[in-house]
Every structure is written in C-alpha cells, then in structure tokens.
Amino acid sequence: MVIGVPKEIKNNENRVALTPAGVQELVKFNHTLYVQSTAGIGSGFSDDEYRAAGAEILPTIEDVYGIADMIMKVKEPIAPEYGLIRENQLLFTYFHFASSRELTEAMIERRAVCLAYETVEKADRSLPLLIPMSEVAGRMAIQEGAKYLEKPLKGRGILLGGVPGVPPAKVLILGGGVVGTQAAKMAAGLGAQVTILDVSLPRLRYLSDIMPANVITRMSNDYTIRELVKDHDLIVGAVLIPGAKAPNLITRDMLKTMRPGTVLVDVAVDQGGCIETCKPTTHENPTYIIDDVVHYCVANMPGAVPYTSTQALTNATLPYALQLANKGWQQACQDSAELRLGLNVVQGEVVYQGVSDAFNLPYTPLERVMSGAYSS
C-alpha cells in the first residue's frame, strides 16, 4: 500500500503521525511511505531520519495527498485539506466528528473512508488509540491548570501543593476514566487536595483503592457538582462518550457561584466540551475569561509536548496501521471488530451512530457498507 504522512497544519500542532521507527516497520512489509518535508521537525525527527528509515520525502502536502492510498495523520483535516482528499482514500486519524458538522459534511462530500482513532474499541470497551493521548492530556491538564492559577495569568494566585502552614489548592476532576485518573495522579503528586467524580460505583471503588490519601471519590450528579464548584480552585473536565458529543456537566449559571480566578480545563473540548461555556482555543491563545473564571480549552493539548506524544501515538497506532496496509481497509475491518468500530464515514455515508445523532444525519448500518452495498 502507498501510505502518506502529511505535515500537520492545525494551529500549533507539532505532532506527526509516524516516527521513523514506525515508518521502518511499515517499509519492512513492502509498503511505500511518503512523508512531507519537515513533517517530523516539531517532534524532533528530521527528513534524513525518515529517509534512512525507508521513506521518500515529498515537498508539499498536495504531493502527499495526491499519491497516497492511506493518509495517516494526527488531527482531523481542516478546511485547506478538504479539497485534497480523494474519493475512496482512507484517512486514519483523530476525527472527533461529533464536535464539527462542517468536518462531517466535508468528509461525506469527499466520499472518503474515515477511520477514527478515537472510536477504535476493544472488547472490554477500552479505546486503545485514544488512551495514549488521554494519558498525556490528563497529566497536562494539571500542569497547565497549575500555571493558570498564577495571579499574573488571572488565576486565584494559589500554589497547587501549598506550603507548610498554608493549605493546598482544591482540584475537582469530572470523570474517572483515563484522563481523570492521570489528572488525579498528577494533582495528588503535587500535593493538591483532589476530588474525583464518576457515575460508576465500581470505578470509584477502584480509584479509591489505587489513589493516595489526598484523593477522595464522590458519585457524580448535578447536585454534587453544583456544591463542589463553589470552593474548588482548579476544575478539570474529563468526560468522554465515545464518538458522541460530551454532556454539559458545568453550566453557564454555575460560573457565578465559583470564586474569581477559578481555572477550568476542559479536556473534552475535542468532543464539544463538558463545560457549557467551553469553546476551542489554541496553544497560541489558550485561555479566555467569563465571569472572572479562567477557561483553558486547547483542542490539541498533547501537541505542546510532541516528542512524547508522537512516540506514544505511534506505539498505539502502528499495529492497526499494519493491519490496514497489509489487508486493505475492507478486509482488515472485516477481520477486526476493533477496527470496524473505527469507521465513522464511508464513501459518503455516516456509519457511526454517535455522529449521526450529533447532527441528525442519516445513518447507514455498517453491515450494508461491509457487505458491498457500496462500491469500494
């Protein structure tokens, strides 16, 4: 298969879809790799390293899209890329369709095969291609939150871990999944007083067993959230419904009950955000303030630490990329229930229920596509 790795052009996105090591593994199976010039620079990988691994370097993004059967990316295509995508071309990347009608309609129009990292799902309901970036984002949420609690950045002016004789900051984490667990570990390690909410009692029992004494667990509901936001300094939104829009757990009216300088970090912004006042921001302009509450809603948080993120992502995606390349997407998805669940939009049809529900778009059962109802 001919595989293309374009340079990411989303604002301040420094990750790249494959490391040179990942390229070398695909080349070993006789696949042809084309990498756009300087695609890996932001992650610390030079064109020469990709050449040494067996890739051919192409000068422009148009060249890469024009030649590849499968495009491997990190973030969803943005408007300048829409016109480059060909009918039946396989795109393997993070899409988060439910947060963008424009993107969804563009991919329907282009009749591409869109396989989303974030909805590839194992039998145990875990999301193997989302986990590594969720781990990074969860840890970064505390790192960034601690920074924006500083007074010059409009925060409360509180040190996350406190000092002897002065209490630490109070951190509230909405969601006990991968993001929430990593955020809680980081916040607890810095000495904060941490409360983590979830709707699953088994999950809360597990978290209670593994977390240090400065982390307490609470059942998540509207009443509890409304009470806790009044006196917590840093609030992290870490809620995920795979492939669907995140629910608004923090509503606009709650902001007026928070203390001035409270910091909100919405890691769910890629899926529409779990904070009603959330809107996507960038690393260039990461925050805004509503009702004296600082909002940090960067939609590609792991892009700020690309050396770590790119390696973690390649470690997770490479086995699936090999299946797709070795077998073709149709056979690979027939053979793998995990990959089948990654299909969101195929040849102009929405085949993932969460995307259909988000925008009230027609839904086509995946079985009709996989049985050959649509030509490939």
From TrEMBL:
Positions annotated to bind NAD(+): S134, D198, R203, S220, V239, L240, V267, A268, V269, D270, V298, A299, N300, M301
Location of the Alanine dehydrogenase/pyridine nucleotide transhydrogenase NAD(H)-binding domain: 149-297
Keyword Signal carried by entry: no
Gene3D superfamilies listed in its UniProt record: NAD(P)-binding Rossmann-like Domain
GO CC terms: plasma membrane
One GO term of the biological process aspect: L-alanine catabolic process
Active site per database record: H96, D270
EC number: 1.4.1.1
Domain (Alanine dehydrogenase/pyridine nucleotide transhydrogenase N-terminal): residue spans on this chain: 4-137
Pfam families, alphabetized: AlaDh_PNT_C (PF01262), AlaDh_PNT_N (PF05222)
GO molecular function: alanine dehydrogenase activity; nucleotide binding
Binding of substrate, residues: R15, K75
Chemical reaction(s) catalysed: L-alanine + NAD(+) + H2O = pyruvate + NH4(+) + NADH + H(+)
This protein's UniProt keywords: NAD, Nucleotide-binding, Oxidoreductase
Family to which this protein belongs: Belongs to the AlaDH/PNT family.
Name of protein: Alanine dehydrogenase
Native organism: Cesiribacter andamanensis AMV16
